[in-house]
Write a structure and sequence with these properties.
This protein has three helices and nine strands; from the N terminus they run H-E-E-E-H-E-E-E-E-H-E-E. With 216 residues, it is of the alpha+beta class. It has a single domain, classed as Multidrug-efflux Transporter 1 Regulator Bmrr, Chain A. The protein has a nine-stranded antiparallel beta sheet with strand order 1-2-7-9-8-4-5-3-6.
Length: 216
């Protein structure tokens, strides 16, 4: 008696996978799951990061960095709490997984930049270096925009642990004090940078507060 032939599961035959939207969502979830497994234990080195070189160091582990030009996708959401941050992230994640004029999938990079401005939560995904403001596909959602940061110098203070606003503010205070006693002065608002997802192991996280600086 012959045995039954094995059933070969084909994603393309699954009804919900016939939709472009569901295919994009499925692929996105797979990529996020793989990346999350690495990020949970602190491995994010495979993701592209903005290019910079350290040109000075200050007491307390503060680096003065010369950054190259960076193109970003930015979201703006009303509110200053964690739910606003999550909504901003979802808008940007949707953009890089195909909710754009080309329905193009764009690689995730690190870090994710955030700041609270005018009672809004502003978040940025830096786009891979192959893109500039002209070549990046246009967002379909009006709450997402594309922009570029010209080459500039920034001070950065790295820390681990919680990604809360309160912990970022504490390190921002430490950085401000260090800058006051240095040959550099801040210019503009301090932003938070997160290199790992919120569910990663806290002591393996890389977080930063960062601000543009100029010589005194």
């Amino acid at each position: 008696m012959q045995g039954k032939k094995p059933i070969l599961f084909k994603i393309s035959k699954v009804p919900f996978m016939r939709s472009k939207h569901w295919k994009r969502l499925f692929i996105g979830l797979v990529l996020v799951t793989i990346a999350a497994g690495c990020a949970m234990v602190g491995f994010t080195s495979t993701l592209e990061q903005p290019n910079y070189k350290v040109i000075d160091t200050l007491p307390g582990g503060i680096e003065i960095r010369q950054y190259e030009s960076r193109t970003f996708a930015s979201s703006r959401v009303d509110g200053t709490g964690m739910e606003s941050r999550r909504q901003g992230f979802r808008l940007l994640f949707n953009y890089i997984t195909g909710e754009n004029s080309s329905e193009e999938e764009i690689s995730m990079t690190i870090p994710v930049a955030t700041e609270i401005k005018d009672k809004e939560h502003v978040m940025q995904f830096f786009l891979p270096s192959e893109y500039d403001a002209a070549s990046a596909p246009a967002p379909k959602n009006p709450n997402v925009s594309i922009g570029t940061i010209a080459p500039r110098v920034e001070a950065a203070l790295e820390y681990t642990g919680s990604q809360s606003v309160q912990r970022a503010e504490m390190h921002a205070f430490l950085m401000k004090n260090a800058l006051n006693d240095s040959n550099w002065q801040s210019k503009g608002d301090i932003r938070s940078m997160f290199y790992n997802p919120p569910f990663s192991i806290p002591f393996l996280r890389r977080n930063e507060v960062i601000v543009e600086v100029t010589p005194k």
